[in-house]
Specification:
423 residues; Aspartate Aminotransferase, domain 1; Aspartate Aminotransferase, domain 2; 2 domains; binds 4'-deoxy-4'-aminopyridoxal-5'-phosphate
Length: 423
């Protein structure tokens, strides 16, 4: 494959941008590749600057369920752009999107838009601390909540090392105090932390279905336990549905599992391919936000009219014709075939709805420890092999892949066949 223009683009980019990329994983270092520079995307086809084409299963890290550049979204965006691209003054599109978010995710009675998932989480945490007047945040190893300092606490910091482990963040310890990270799916650890610190815990934040240690499913009763303990202890439950929101169902993971969190962070899909995200929840909690209350939160580009229009067009499309049911069914058949084709290759395929991860592991993957034990080197080989066959999968087995409505049967079957031939 000729990649000379991408190589040249990378040589130029590194002179001005750290690592040549604006988000580290795009550098493809962990899979032993050089970055790819894209010139266009349509449906599930990426075209790079050398005119190589790839069938995309990363889909901008889960932004697109309908594929890139959906005509109805582009039409809405063009209409919005014609009227100006930012006002810093309210516009009708903001309420329009807010209405849809509150309708589809009923635990969100009020919502505020921000520009990234990181910002959504950061704001939800500030609000949870303001509301409870407590400090401790409980998170789970391998769940990613953006590059907020106190959310980068390393795995295994546990209760004993309360707030004392920020090695992965590379920032001074004092910045990250009061975050506890526990093993996902470990009910006993959660019970223990509430027993010891219950009265000081502001919130438990969790990806209800983690996608950032690869896709890992919550074990039966785990999310219910989080709901129960937070309620009993006056702590808030925050669902980070930046990936699962609108994806696992129109109402996200919380609809699927029948659990109403106090606050929810959403992102990716809600911006329809533009930098928008949101956090929301009970009116009584959201009432603390400025200008109604004392918890300050703001943003120059928040509720950007172009992003809001893209979000409205996207959510309208997602609410039509039992789209989730059809997409999830298509994905389930694909995953079944993929499992059969990769049998006896030391591959575990974790899957829910339209999200999946291939782990190079001999045993099932139910926690961050299991995910980390999976064979990185083999995954790197697999990534390069799929890439050589013109598939772009997420460049880490600690990430999710996505099936879109625009993946054709033929493309899915070719993926199964090629993956099945991996040695
Ligand atoms: N939360 C989750 C669950 C995510 O997957 C991500 C990003 N992948 C974030 C938060 C951060 O979002 P962003 O990259 O938009 O800041």
């Amino acid at each position: 494959m000729n990649r000379s223009k991408s190589e040249q683009a990378y040589r130029e980019a590194v002179q001005f941008i750290p690592g040549g990329v604006n988000s580290p994983v795009r550098a493809l270092r962990s899979v032993g590749e050089a970055p790819l520079f894209i010139k266009k995307a349509k449906g599930v086809t990426l075209t790079d600057v050398d005119d190589n084409q790839f069938t995309d299963f990363c889909l901008s890290w889960g932004v697109f369920m309908l594929g890139h550049n959906h005509p109805a979204v582009i039409k809405a965006v063009n209409r919005a752009v014609a009227n100006g691209t930012s006002y810093g003054i309210p516009s009708l599109q903001e309420t329009e999107l807010a209405k849809l978010v509150c309708r589809y995710i009923p635990s969100i009675e009020k919502v505020r838009f921000v520009n990234s998932g990181t910002e959504a989480v950061m704001s939800a945490i500030r609000l949870a601390r303001g509301f409870t007047k407590r400090n401790i945040i409980v998170k789970f190893d391998g769940c990613y909540h953006g590059h907020v300092d106190h959310m980068l606490v390393a795995a295994g910091s546990g209760v004993a090392n309360l707030g004392n482990n920020a090695s992965s963040a590379g920032v001074p310890r004092s910045f990250v105090s009061y975050t506890v990270s526990l093993p996902f799916n470990d009910s006993e650890a959660v019970r223990q932390v509430f027993k010891e610190k219950g009265g000081d815990i502001a919130a438990v934040i969790v990806e209800p279905v983690p996608a950032n240690m690869g896709v890992v499913l919550p074990q039966s009763g785990f999310l219910q336990l989080l709901r129960q303990l937070t309620e009993q202890n006056g702590s808030l439950l925050i669902f980070d549905e930046v990936i699962t929101g609108f994806r696992l169902s129109l109402g996200g993971a919380q609809q699927l599992f029948g659990i109403a969190p106090d606050l929810t962070a959403i992102g990716k899909i809600v911006g329809g391919g533009f930098p928008a995200a949101a956090f929301g929840g009970k009116s009584s909690i959201m009432a603390l936000l400025a200008p109604d209350g004392p918890v300050y939160q703001a943003g120059t580009l928040s509720g950007n009219p172009v992003a809001m229009s893209a979000g409205v067009a996207t959510l309208e499309l997602l609410s039509e014709n039992q789209l989730h049911q059809q997409l999830n069914k298509k994905a389930a058949v694909f995953i079944q075939q993929l499992r059969e084709a990769t049998l006896n290759k030391g591959i575990v395929v974790n899957h829910i709805g339209s999200m999946f991860t291939l782990f190079f592991s001999e045993r099932s993957v139910n926690s961050f420890d299991d995910a980390r034990r999976a064979d990185q080197k083999r995954f790197g080989e697999f990534f390069r092999y799929m890439f050589g066959n013109h598939f772009y999968i997420s460049p880490s087995q600690l990430e999710a892949n996505f099936v879109a409505t625009s993946h054709t049967q033929k493309e899915l079957e070719r993926f199964v066949r090629v993956a099945g031939n991996f040695r």
